[in-house]
Amino acid sequence: MIGVITIKDVKLQLGELCKQKRQIYEMSQEDLAVALDLSRYTIQKFENGKNATLDTVLKIVNHFDLLNNLYLALKDIENTNDINSLY
Amino acid sequence: MIGVITIKDVKLQLGELCKQKRQIYEMSQEDLAVALDLSRYTIQKFENGKNATLDTVLKIVNHFDLLNNLYLALKDIENTNDINSLY
DNA sequence: AATATTTGTGTATTATAATAAACAATTTAA
DNA sequence: TTAAATTGTTTATTATAATACACAAATATT
């Protein structure tokens, strides 16, 4: 298999997702920061794939109405019993 | 609609997921902590729905081979253009 | 029942995410 | 092309996640 996904990849992808959604809603980093009661620097770092806290991530996810999706995805994973259903 | 999902709900669900997967693999909190080079206290707090860092979450997700799933889910969300496809 | 293992909880310390402010670099609008 | 807005980066400070103990409570194991 080519291209195993790394933790860094996921952090970069999360950052991209934030940036993309933010731009769809025509918000600046500053706008988003104010809306979520976070500093612009926190948004800035997150969008560039740096580490963050779960609260920060979930605030952002929630702001773009994706919290329910995430919750259901987690429920799904929990009910998917095991290791790589490849059979 | 009844029961809007909150950030706290998602953190609790993440903790549950960790606990469940860990038990499937017959690991103690200590085992998992050692495997991921984290303290048991960090695992302990995470499983009980406390705040954590993204790195901690992704280390855990990765250990249970769910990183790829998560990445694909994020890609999916990124390509799902907009607000509640309810139409 | 007694012992061993695991989990929950407390305190103190360290590492680092988050904040705040300023300024440069870049992008967008006039 | 200039001005305005946005984004990137730095430094210093504060808040808090993570660590490293220890010990009690709860769950298995014998």
Automatic annotation (TrEMBL), chains A, B:
InterPro entries: Cro/C1-type_HTH (IPR001387), Lambda_DNA-bd_dom_sf (IPR010982)
The HTH cro/C1-type domain, residue ranges: 19-70
Database matches in SUPFAM superfamilies: lambda repressor-like DNA-binding domains
Name of one Pfam family that matches: HTH_3
Domain of life where this protein originates: Bacteria
Record's protein name: Helix-turn-helix transcriptional regulator
